[in-house]
Design a protein that fits this description.
Elements: H1 4-15, E1 17-22, E2 25-36, E3 41-49, E4 52-60, H2 63-66, H3 74-94, H4 99-104, E5 105-107
Antiparallel strand pairs: 1-2, 2-3, 3-4, 4-5
Length: 109
């Protein structure tokens, strides 16, 4: 089973840096911490978007968590990075209007 540190290292290659959904919409992922791997995957990101600094937490269970619950397959980690980018932009777009999204993030500045 992969450790939190191993998942953090491989996932960092996929998610750290500037993530762009479409031209003019970018989120910079500054920091990634994997808190737990099994039975759920707990991830905390520090991001910057539109001049704001945020801490965002994602919890994955079931199929998403199983992507890193065994040996770390690069294709699965790449897919998890894709899912996280998708969820990050979804969170950004809904953080002011959805209660569940609001609870996932904390503004730092």
């Amino acid at each position: 089973m992969a450790t939190s540190e191993q998942v953090e290292e491989m996932l960092g290659r996929e998610i750290l840096g500037i993530q762009q959904e479409y031209p003019g919409s970018a989120i910079e992922v500054l920091e990634l911490r994997v808190r737990d791997v099994c039975p759920r995957l707990s991830v905390q990101l520090k991001i910057r978007a539109q001049g704001e600094l945020w801490e965002v937490s994602f919890e994955y269970k079931g199929p998403e968590a199983s992507l890193v619950s065994g040996d770390l397959d690069p294709d699965r980690v790449e897919y998890l990075g894709f899912l996280m980018r998708t969820h990050l932009f979804e969170w950004w777009d809904t953080k002011d209007t959805e209660k569940a999204s609001e609870r996932m993030g904390k503004r730092l500045n």
